[in-house]
From TrEMBL:
It is found in: Cell membrane. Gene3D superfamilies: Rhodopsin 7-helix transmembrane proteins. The lineage of its organism: Eukaryota, Metazoa, Chordata, Craniata, Vertebrata. It is a multi-pass membrane protein. GO terms for molecular function: G protein-coupled receptor activity; olfactory receptor activity. This is Olfactory receptor. It comes from Chrysochloris asiatica (Cape golden mole). It comes from the Eukaryota.
């Protein structure tokens, strides 16, 4: 049973929150934002959906790297759908109220998908390390069973960590306000509205962020440090360029996600505010999931070829008479 919240103004039980979002913007601004975010959401869904399709159906992409990439796109589809459709609805309607249960569910999904994606990105860096530094043992080390276990580990820690953070967020009653100064139920903002020992809750969040953000980042840094040392010592100029291109795609995705997540979950609340929170929230909820498939496809000839083949098959199928 979800915890009840108390409205300090009249002592009655509060069972919902109000997502302020872009409520104070003019109607024309909200209309523009709706069109913009709808276009970005549609692009993200189409691009990630295409990557999921081709990595799971194209036999030429039957390798661990594309196996992980397909799961990353699936996580992005789930992650972006957790927040953006609700925001689009709120840009059209005046009622921005969400129930306490809906807020809890949304926060849990954000926790789960976000943590799973951070861990998966670390495993993808490890995969590149094995492929480049131990090419002769790559097939044995990164076997299908190992890849399945790594993806399962990312999902497992996402699910378990989500439960832990959910309990931390809603362990205290809410007695300050029910207005959330963002377009979705973001944990640090929700915790700031609760009673009890807020400092203790934020310390737990900070410690958890160190584990789920910095620990995978350490693995990523170590993997790419060894990759860099390896390619500088023995690769030809052309080989270096190809390897750097592949690694640059992954590092760009990592920088996008980790920068925005660290600002949102590892900064003191005194440095936050609606004008600062929303841009970073938009970065990791819609911009990063949209950019991931574009970054990987633009820098990868095999991905571009697979996309052309998939779109070509679709065009031929539509052109055939019934």
């Amino acid at each position: 049973m979800p915890p009840q919240t108390m409205d300090p103004r009249n002592g009655s039980t509060v069972t919902d929150f109000i997502l302020v979002g872009f409520e104070q913007s003019s109607p024309s601004t909200r209309a523009f934002l709706f069109a913009l975010f709808l276009a970005l959401y549609s692009l993200a869904m189409a691009m990630n959906g295409l990557i999921i399709f081709i990595t799971w159906t194209d036999p030429r992409l039957n390798s661990p790297m594309y196996f992980f990439l397909g799961h990353l796109s699936f996580l992005d589809v789930c992650f972006i759908t957790t927040t953006i459709p609700q925001m689009l609805i709120h840009l059209l309607v005046k009622n921005h109220t969400v129930s306490l249960a809906s807020c809890m569910a949304q926060m849990y999904l954000v926790f789960c998908m976000g943590v799973a994606e951070c861990i998966l990105l670390a495993f993808m860096a490890y995969d590149r390390y094995v492929a480049i530094c131990h090419p002769l043992s790559y097939a044995q080390i990164m076997s299908q069973q190992v890849c399945l276990r790594l993806v399962g580990t990312a999902w497992f820690f996402g699910l378990i960590n989500g439960i832990f953070l959910e309990y931390t967020s809603f362990r205290n009653p809410f007695c300050k306000d029910n207005h959330i100064e963002n377009f979705f139920c973001e944990a640090p903002i929700v915790i700031a509205l609760s009673c009890g020992d807020l400092l203790f809750s934020m310390k737990i969040f900070f410690a958890d962020a160190i584990v789920v953000l910095l620990s995978p980042m350490v693995l990523i840094v170590i993997s790419y440090a060894r990759i860099l040392a390896s390619i500088l010592s023995r690769a030809s100029s052309s080989g270096r360029g190809k390897t750097f291109s592949t690694c640059a795609s992954h590092l760009t995705v990592v920088i996008f996600l980790y920068t925005s997540a660290m600002f949102s979950y590892m900064n003191p609340r005194s440095t936050h505010g609606p004008d600062k929170d929303k841009p970073f929230s938009l970065l990791y909820t819609i911009i990063t999931p949209m950019c991931n498939p574009i970054i990987y496809s633009i820098r990868n000839k095999e991905m571009k070829g697979a996309m052309v083949r998939a779109l070509g098959r679709t065009s031929l199928a539509q052109a055939e008479p019934a």
